[in-house]
Design goal:
Layout (H helix, E strand, L loop, with lengths): L9 H11 L4 E5 L2 E4 H17 L7 E5 L4 H12 L3 E4 L6 H10 L4 E5 L3 H4 L2 H4 L4 E5 L9 E3 H5 L17 E7 L7 E6 H15 L6 E4 L6 H13 L3 E4 L6 H10 L4 E4 L1 H9 L4 H6 L4 E4 L6 H10 L4 E7 L6 E4 L12 E2 L4 E5 L12 E6 L6 E2 L3 H7 E2 L2 E10 L5 E6 L4 E3 L2 E3 L1 H9 L4 E10 L6 E9 L7 H11 L8 E4 L13 H9 L8
Parallel strand pairs: 1-11, 3-4, 3-5, 5-6, 6-7, 10-11, 10-12, 12-13, 13-14, 26-27
Antiparallel strand pairs: 1-2, 8-9, 9-19, 14-15, 15-16, 17-18, 18-21, 20-21, 21-22, 23-24, 25-26
Helix pairs in contact: 1-2, 2-3, 8-9, 11-13
Amino acid sequence: MMLTYPYQNFYEIMEANAKNDPKKTAIFMDDHKVSYVKLKHHIDTFARFLEFSSIKSGDRVAMIVGNSVEFIVSLFAITKIGAIAVPLNTFLKKEEFEYILNDCSAKMLVCSASFANETKNLLDTTKIEKIIWCDDYPHLDERNYSFSEIDASADRHGYVTKKPKLDDLACIVYTSGTTGKPKGAMLSYRNIFSNAISGADSFHITCKDRFIVFLPMFHSFTLSIMVLLPLFTCSSIVIVRSVFPFANVLKQTLLKRVTIFLGVPTLYNALLKAKIPWYFMWFNQVRIFISGSAPLSEQSLNDFNAKFKKATLLEGYGLSECSPAVCVNRLDHQKPLSVGLPLPSYEVKIVNEERVEVKTGEVGEIMVKGDCVMQGYLNHADATDETIINGWLLTGDLGKKDSDGFIYIVDRKKDLIISKGINIYPREIEEIIYKYEGIDAVAVIGIRDEQTKDEEVLAFIQLKEGVEIQESELRAYLKQHVANFKLPKHIYFVEELPKNATGKVLKRVLKENVKNGGILRKR
């Protein structure tokens, strides 16, 4: 199936919606509504400021922005003038932000004031020329600007001399691999639109649908499926700043008549245990619950469908390098434990180590081909060549395919940890622990909690001879250098880490020890 692309870039969506249905509500947030014509007005104003600030086509503008109208305005304004948006994980710490901003050579940063502590020195340590602060920021000057003051300006951005084309770079999404630093997946408008078109087809989306966004907008899944897809279909978005308190998510779902709900397994497991008010169960309008990032157990799936009879829970699979959705179960055909069928126009095959397709039901590495496949990794040509072969993307995930073409995820080929839907590098945490005085060897692994179906981060540490370390002091050090979601839940001090003949730590043995209840000395 060939896809037809009605738009060349994101801004053309806004032009069409503002023209065809100007008064329709594009965004609900708290007690505010923003119509499509008003949203275009905000975008044009911010685009004028960007141009005035010498941001040109091809320049990178980073975003450390929480869920908000400003996130969407920034994304569309940046790309309107042909610049490239770089949405960053807001949970990162100063050193992590610094690395990414330098890696992508960002010229400007849009930042929520709530992240000021972790971003205050970035003007000195990166190539950032200006920071645009969302919300109230007290220290405005010639390099620190207020988003709301810019938005209040009478200036509008009008004609674009060079409009972005379908195969131009739209966004750089930094993805967690399993080795080294995060890499920037370069996504074009075609990449992301292919997800929107295929998603609209698979979920039967109409302009009457309303999507609730409480998962972080920087996440590639949320960005493509819950932000760009509804705008693409002239639907509405209900923005919630945070998943906490969850009662507010349910309240907004009910009051704003939400029809499409995206969550992760830990959240759906929590929903199963929660006492949901009868009036929510009776009056909610949700027709589709979408689950991604990690597998749901068959029991959870069955229990959820029994509890929420009016809606369908659909599991899917994706990765940032594929913009990100690859597979999803369909409204008329689902299989427990499966991540569904490839989205329209995408191809998925299961291959062995020689990249030869294996038989139906056999386990191998998942490869993906289609317009979703990224252009490559920024500044990493070698990694791109290893990942994309003749248009096919090697995912690093192990899976199998049944006779109906449904895909099942079996395991991850590498050691990537996924906690609450966010990817975590073991090696990145290991490198930071290694910098602490007295560490001889370290291994970080993820262990799946069978109750929550989420992964916990565990660190195993071998100390240098004669060294004593207090766990509380090590934890205080880690809190300064890594995001909270990466912090190990348990730290084990061991006499010696299991290694092979070449001295490589055998993480598989560590995982088996934990699963088998092996006794480890904890200090």
